[in-house]
Amino acid sequence: MELPEKFEALRGKRLFVTGVAGFIGGALFRRLAAYGLDVTGSVLFEKEAESMRAEGFHIEVLDLVSDEPWERFVENVDIVFHIAATFQEVEKSEDYYEEANNHAVVKLAKAANTASVERFVHCSTVGVHGDVKQIPCTEKTPFNPMDIYHRTILRGELALLEYAKTLGDDGMVVTVNRPAMVYGPGDTRMMKLYQSIFKRRFVMIGSGETLAHLGYIDDQVDSLILCGTRPRSDVHMEAFNIASGQPITLNEMTRMIAEEGNIRLPRWHVPVWLIWSAAVACEILWKPFGARPPLFRRRVGFFTHNRAFDISKAREKLGYDPKWQEKDGLIEAINWYRQEGYL
């Protein structure tokens, strides 16, 4: 794959990407490798590392909650893309989330600065704005984190930007990328939604008029690379909300998915309070066993929290230009699920 001119600044650079066993980190890592760039990735487990090494990739094992020093991971590296985070591990303690999503961010940034890394791109989430009250939400909209994941991610983002203030005018460039609801081939987080629709088991929770702002995986990868290549004056100590062109309602999104399967969705909806109560009960019952419950409040929040973002800052400063329309992206995702045997 030829390196596009807009990413030419990556040529000759050594790159390090964390969380490459995950959806976003893996897509970014494989794109950079496909460009023929010198890129190393990190994963949490040795089995994941062995699998990816068998494909010919350079892979390290990095645990975000480990006490080991991390300078060796970023030695002689020019750009770090920090994507790894603890996400839906609801069975983990708040201390674990705090360590992985907050303390680890600054620890890795400090190690990168010590190693004279040029740029540090951190992947946060638009979820730091929670159930948005200002529509569309901008980067300056007050934060409103709704759960342990968003709270700890926000603290990590803010701590990183505070640390960046100490680096000086010619120090390491630090940029925060906040993805919206990323989807597309390779995503398994939204897979249950597709499966329930295709198996004719889906019923909307609530009105369905809640806003969802999607971001196709290829567009999201573009935005991360742009964070690592744009001029310092445009990106240093800046945060960018990243999504597709316009938000859509959950009714619109589920209808697009159903149409691809020639499926008629039920007209009746389930009350939010009923499913929310069930999620709370599941979390309480499963917690003593240290296991992930089949239903939890964060999953219910998908149906109740509005997500709608103004991406004009990313367009202006990053040159970000999302290419994928929602229906086209959803069809690509469906084709991948079918190919993999998930549908």
Structure write-up:
- With 343 residues, the chain is of the alpha/beta class.
- The chain has a domain at 9-189 and 213-248 and 310-327: Rossmann fold, CATH 3.40.50.720.
- It has 13 helices and eleven strands.
- The chain has a seven-stranded parallel beta sheet, sandwiched between helices. A two-stranded parallel ribbon has the order 7-9.
- It is globular, with a radius of gyration of 20 Å.
- It starts with 13 loop residues before the first strand and ends with a helix.
- The model has no long low-confidence stretch (mean pLDDT 93).
- Structure classification: alpha/beta
* Residues in helices, as a percent range: 40-55%
- Rg for CA atoms: 20 Å
CATH topology term of the domain at 9-189 and 213-248 and 310-327: Rossmann fold
What average pLDDT do the residues reach?
A: 93
Please state the second-level CATH architecture of the domain at 9-189 and 213-248 and 310-327.
3-Layer(aba) Sandwich
Identify the overall geometry: globular
Q: What's the total count of β strands? A: 11
Number of helices: 13
Set out the fold topology.
Elements lengths: L13 E4 L5 H12 L3 E6 L2 H8 L4 E4 L9 H4 L4 E4 L11 H21 L4 E5 L24 H17 L8 E7 L1 E3 L7 H8 L12 E2 L1 E3 H11 L4 H4 L2 E5 L5 E2 H11 L11 H15 L10 H5 L10 H7 L7 H15 L3
Parallel strand pairs: 1-2, 1-4, 2-3, 4-5, 5-6, 6-10, 7-9
Antiparallel strand pairs: 8-11
